[in-house]
């Protein structure tokens, strides 16, 4: 597998977002299951005893409590949400699945669970895991998800080809641009929709340990810069969130502040990853095979 072909932003054809928007902002809520007994995302990484309950419990808080605050917040603000959903959530957390349906969050596939990466899988095993994940996720909204985010970015040489062959239309696994672009695979073109490791609560709240106000300001600063630049070159801004991080009481007010700041700006398209895919493929169809 080769990385995407290099493309310099100033050399591209003009991009036009719907309604003359400068920035398309989409929120990705990563809704995840971590297998008990395996290490995972940690607020206290030094806690590594087995079985390790502190970090597991902290993550579990998101599915027990935090997600409900977030359902309420986004409903209050009227902001659409893209739920990057582990397939195993469908079997293990029925109330959350019902909440996704009730609040009409868009479902994007997020692998089987967040303890099962793809790295090191042979082609057949990965193909079976993708098919099993998509079959289960189809039960949430009645149709196969269009998009995919690999747990932990743990891809193989075959991942993008297998995703396209399974019916996936776009991936958010690449974090190298502010605009969508087409990826070539042996199974056909796959759209890359920009995701982020910067405006992501794991980077900001766990790695950088920013307090709530600084977390909000980081989101605001990112948006403001893209909004100014978007007058000439429209941009996509992803916000990557996790219920066990932003669903904690101490961060809810800061998240709300940042989202309201974004909402208050004209020429801003608050949307979902599926809507970005629909707009882009209609305005900028995949190139014909050479």
From TrEMBL:
SUPFAM superfamilies the record matches: Glycoside hydrolase/deacetylase
Pfam family, one: Polysacc_deac_1
Domain spans labelled NodB homology: 60-170
Classification via PANTHER family: POLYSACCHARIDE DEACETYLASE (PTHR43123:SF4), POLYSACCHARIDE DEACETYLASE-RELATED (PTHR43123)
Protein name: Polysaccharide deacetylase family protein
Organism: Thermostichus vulcanus str. 'Rupite'
Organism phylogeny: Bacteria, Bacillati, Cyanobacteriota, Cyanophyceae, Thermostichales
């Amino acid at each position: 597998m080769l990385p995407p072909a290099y493309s310099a932003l100033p050399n591209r054809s003009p991009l036009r977002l719907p309604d003359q928007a400068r920035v398309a902002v989409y929120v990705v809520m990563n809704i995840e299951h971590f297998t008990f007994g395996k290490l995972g995302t940690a607020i206290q990484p030094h806690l590594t005893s087995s079985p390790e309950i502190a970090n597991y419990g902290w993550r579990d808080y998101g599915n027990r409590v935090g997600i409900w605050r977030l359902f309420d917040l986004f409903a209050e603000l009227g902001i659409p949400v893209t739920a990057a959903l582990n397939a195993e959530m469908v079997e293990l957390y029925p109330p959350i699945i019902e909440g996704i349906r009730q609040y009409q969050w868009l479902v994007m596939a997020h692998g089987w669970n967040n303890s099962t990466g793809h790295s090191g899988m042979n082609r057949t095993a990965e193909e079976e895991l993708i098919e099993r994940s998509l079959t289960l996720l189809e039960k949430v909204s009645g149709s196969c998800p269009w998009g995919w985010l690999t747990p932990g970015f743990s891809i193989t040489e075959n991942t993008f080809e297998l995703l396209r062959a399974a019916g996936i239309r776009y991936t958010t696994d690449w974090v190298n641009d502010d605009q969508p672009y087409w990826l070539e695979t042996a199974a056909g073109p796959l759209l890359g929709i920009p995701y982020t490791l910067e405006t992501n609560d794991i980077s900001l709240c766990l790695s950088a340990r920013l307090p709530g106000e600084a977390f909000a300001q980081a989101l605001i600063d990112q948006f403001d810069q893209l909004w100014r630049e978007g007058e000439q070159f429209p941009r996509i801004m992803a916000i990557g969130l996790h219920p066990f991080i932003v669903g904690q009481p101490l961060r809810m007010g800061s998240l709300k502040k940042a989202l309201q700041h974004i909402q208050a700006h004209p020429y801003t398209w608050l949307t979902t990853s599926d809507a970005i895919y629909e707009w882009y493929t209609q305005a900028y169809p995949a190139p014909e095979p050479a």
